[in-house]
Amino acid sequence: MKIRILSLLIIFNTGILFSQNRKYLIFDLFGVNGVGAISFDSRFNENNKFGYKIGVGYGTEFHSDQQHFYFTPVKVYMPVNNLQYHSFSIPAHLYYQVGSSNNFFEPGIGLCAIHTNYTHRTGNGIGYFSYAHIAYRHESSNVPLMFSLGFESPFYTPGAAIGYGVGLSAFVNVGFKL
């Protein structure tokens, strides 16, 4: 089931990738991606305020008796000491932009497929989760850049079976118009 969802996301987004007007290549720092990601962002057409974003991200998590840190959208249930966990994700979300031509409030909702090097419940490290997205976004009219910052929060997704969400994750994005 998880492979089918991932396959459908890839097919859907590849099909509409080249048919849009306003496109950005975005570098993401933190958020549901973990440490960071590279994403493609576009509106459904030039005058529409609805858009989508899909990317590929990386996260990491480390545990020891003295320290614990994680930059990943989901947390390990029963971590092993002195082992670093890695996660690779494919987040995709839909958003709606509210605001003027350059400054927007951007609420959205998404689904993230994830692969980690630890196993839990499913017997493999493949899973998915849903997340909410809220951001401020600025698109420059003079320079081909965009900037956004905000929060993303994974939430309970039936059947996800991979760790649990870490709560509210802040993020910063910088994008270049294509």
Concise synopsis of the structure shown:
The chain has 178 residues and is mostly beta strands. The chain has one helix and twelve strands. It has a single domain (2-177), classed as Porin (Beta Barrel).
Radius of gyration: 17 Å
Q: Structurally, how many domains make up the residues?
A: 1
pLDDT under 50 segments (min length 5)?
A: none
Structural class computed from helices and strand pairing? mainly beta
Q: From the coordinates shown, what is the CATH architecture?
A: Beta Barrel
Shape: elongated
Number of strands: 12
CATH class: Mainly Beta
Could you characterize what this model shows?
The chain has 178 residues and is mainly β. The protein has one domain: Porin, CATH 2.40.160. It has one helix spanning 2-17, and strands at residues 23-30, 36-43, 50-63, 68-71, 74-75, 83-96, 98-99, 103-116, 126-139, 145-155, 164-165, 169-177. The chain has an eight-stranded antiparallel beta barrel. A two-stranded antiparallel sheet has the order 5-11. Strand 3 and strand 4 (68-71) form a beta hairpin.
